[in-house]
Amino acid sequence: MVDAEKGAGPSNAGPKMNQYEEQDVGFCGGILIAISILMCIVFFPLAPFFIIKVVAQYEKAVILRLGCIRKGGAAGPGLFFFLPCVDEIHVVDMRTVSFDVPPQEILTKDSVTVTVDAVVYFRIQDAVSSVCNVDNVKTATRLLAQTTLRNMLGTKSLSEILSEREEISNSMQQTLDVATDPWGVLVERVEVKDVRLPQNLQRAMAAEAEAHRDAKAKVIAAEGELNASKALKEAADVIAESPSALQLRYLQTLSAIAAERNSTILFPMPIDMMKAFAEK
């Protein structure tokens, strides 16, 4: 029986495959391979159930023959053959995986303790490197994301963390991508989800914001009074130039009062008019 070296689909061996060239298994290894092939021939009616492997479209199979990477790198997707007792198969999921970074208590540059969590999206682009270069690629990526988040935010102040979340996410994504590149991992996206502050700090920031609003309101009220006083001064100057303007203002005020409700109205009499009647 002929052992196929590749699966039904083309192998996506990246540029790092050159460092995993197939090694000579030696005389003893050749004997073991021959015995495995002979067993497949002897038990042919049952052998297909043990030597055929199918991987899905989103998977790759890394085959180790006597502990060495087979020529051609990862196999699949599709149907391929392997030798029992000689080949060891590692199926790698090539889809994008997401995980939450647990909330991390971080001391910022300005000595403020905050709790920050994030979410990371990554996928495996080199199946062989993910099997040969790291024990558990998902666990290693998750732990690296936690330490990277703590180290990066520890160099930022609280105001920078709150206002520069997008820049922090981009910088963290680039750092993780470079660090996980030898593992065959591509970090696609990193997002800072939430920044939680201590309760006492929240109360202090709320009090500071309220005081700032009160001060701004007082400034606006003072500016309004200043503008009103200037307008009143200009009106007084105009009325002073024409005494009859004051009487017209009186009448206008009485008209406005009478339109609202019926009530007793005290009409002010100018002292000059009273003097005229007194002389007569």
Quickly list its features.
280 residues; alpha+beta; 3-stranded antiparallel beta sheet; rod-shaped; disordered N terminus
Write a short abstract of this structure:
The protein is α+β, with helices and mostly antiparallel strands. It has helices at residues 26-42, 48-51, 127-132, 137-153, 158-163, 165-180, 199-241, 243-260, 271-279; strands spanning 52-55, 59-65, 68-69, 78-81, 87-93, 97-107, 113-124, 185-196.
Describe this structure in words.
The longest helix is centred in the last third of the chain and has 43 residues, at 199-241. Helix 4 packs across helix 6 (165-180). The protein has helices spanning 26-42, 48-51, 127-132, 137-153, 158-163, 165-180, 199-241, 243-260, 271-279, and strands at residues 52-55, 59-65, 68-69, 78-81, 87-93, 97-107, 113-124, 185-196. By secondary structure, the chain is α+β, with helices and mostly antiparallel strands. It contains nine helices and eight strands. The strands form three sheets. A three-stranded antiparallel β-sheet has the order 3-2-5.
Number of helices: 9
Low-confidence segments, ≥5 residues, pLDDT <50? Answer: 1-18
The global form is rod-shaped
Distance between the termini: 143 Å
What percentage of amino acids are in beta strands?
15-25%
What structural category arises from helix and sheet content? Answer: alpha+beta
Looking across the biggest beta sheet, what order are the strands in?
3-2-5
Most strands sheet = 3 strands, antiparallel
As a whole number of angstroms, the C-alpha radius of gyration is: 42 Å
Mean pLDDT: 79
Estimate the helix proportion, in percent: 40-55%
